[in-house]
Amino acid sequence: MSEIKLTESAPTEDNGEEKDWAAAKAFFDNLKTNKPRPPKPRYAVTIAVSSRTLFNMVKERKIYQDEGLEKYVAYQMEHESEPLMPGAAFPFVQALMNVNSRLRQLYPDSEELFDIVLMTNNHAQVGVRLINSINHYDLSIERFCMTGGESPIGYLKAYMTNLYLSKDSDKVTEAIEEGIAAATMFTADTDNELSKTQLRVAFDGDAVLFSDESEIIVKQHGLDTFFEHEKEFENKPLAQGPLKCFLEALGKLQRKFIAKNERLNCPIRTFLVTARSAASSGARVLKTLRSWGLEIDEALFLAGAPKGPLLEKIKPHIFFDDQMFHIEGAQQMGTISAHVPYGIGQKYHKGKLIEQPPKKE
Questions:
Q1: Segment 63-102, tens digit of pLDDT
Q2: What's the first-to-final CA gap in the chain, in angstroms?
Q3: Rounded to whole angstroms, what are the CA distances from 155 to 161, 175, 218, 324?
Q4: Measuring CA to CA, how many Å separate 52 from each of 84, 178, 225, 226, 323?
Q5: Per the record, a Pfam family (predicted)?
Q6: Nearest Cα to 275, choosing from 347, 226, 342?
Q7: Which candidate, 133, 137, 16, 28, places its Cα nearest to that of 84?
Q8: Count of CB atoms within 10 A of residue 12's CB?
Q9: Active-site residue (options: 204, 206, 212, 321)
């Protein structure tokens, strides 16, 4: 899984890199717009978003699918002065920017900030419309990766990515296989008013923050065996799942606010929303988080009840889950959701085994 980057106590970088960053700082400091400069990647929490998650590009996608690449690029160039509409990741990105603003107030010289990278396989000619749209909404996105039809996954590690969000489930699966936290984003069916002052992130537990080891027991041996197993191994931490390192990164930034006596006014809030039962299998989850040195602000154990109604109250900017029926339920209740295609749950839907296509010889 992707690792948390070094803190600012790390050894001094070489002189060439320091000169480059000094020049970049001077450039941004002299801008009349006072646009904040991006932080150094080695210290930042880097969020890579695809163009189709940041903006609503359904119409443009249809042109590409129906009429081909050349017509698609031509359309984007003809309409490059028209800003694209916000997409599923847009409120999340705005919330990240708000956290950065608060961090800069408390730590003016800190490099430990969110850094948002646009990671897309779009042709460079489409980049003008993307840049114009980003500037229209005054988004702080300075780093782009436009790969001209090639998969951008190979660049994620080079960009030191902590989280990758895309509409393409195959690319997301590829990123997870490379050890990078990733999820496929889905737009909510209805609009919920989200917080403008606090980033709210909700996580499922098994196969998201934790490995799918316990879920395998549920699927293969049933709930009674699962409860017995969790009781027996209550004091043995679960292995980490694909999103553990992202929770860890959020916790690192939360502690910066706590250090300034801002715990009650922290602009980051995290939620565990799990189908587990608290009394029967909850202790192992909480003890695992404790063993990792991580805190979760709110833990909701639903004992198999639908997650949608609780998420409607939480109003997260993003909710991560490994099972599509939870994603679908959240969408219907107005929650922006992100599917994590990891673990044994991908072989099931609503508890039933999905018929797998026969393997080719």
A1: 999 999 999 999 999 999 999 999 999 999 999 999 999 9
A2: 32
A3: 9, 10, 37, 28
A4: 10, 22, 42, 39, 22
A5: 5-nucleotidase
A6: 226
A7: 133
A8: 7
A9: 204
Sequential DSSP letters for 12-50: PPPHHHHHHHHHHHHHHHT-TT-PPPPPPTTTSEEEEE-
Q: Tokens 């980033």, residue?
A: 199
> H/E element holding 156?
helix 153-156
Answer for the pair 276, 229: CB distance below 8 angstroms, yes or no: no
Tokens of 190: 């209805």
CB atoms within 10 A of CB 189: 12
* 164-205 residue pLDDT tens: 999 999 999 999 999 999 999 999 988 889 999 999 999 999
pTM of the model: 0.88
Q: Are 100 and 114 in contact (CB under 8 A)?
A: yes
Q: Which residue, among 297, 300, 53, has the nearest Cα to 186 in the 3D structure?
A: 53
CA–CA separation, 181 vs 193, rounded Å?
A: 27
Pick from 319, 325, 332: which is nearest to 354 by CA?
325
CB 89 within 8 A of CB 119: no
Known catalytic residue: 204?
Answer: yes
The label of the residue with tokens 């300075």 reads: 142
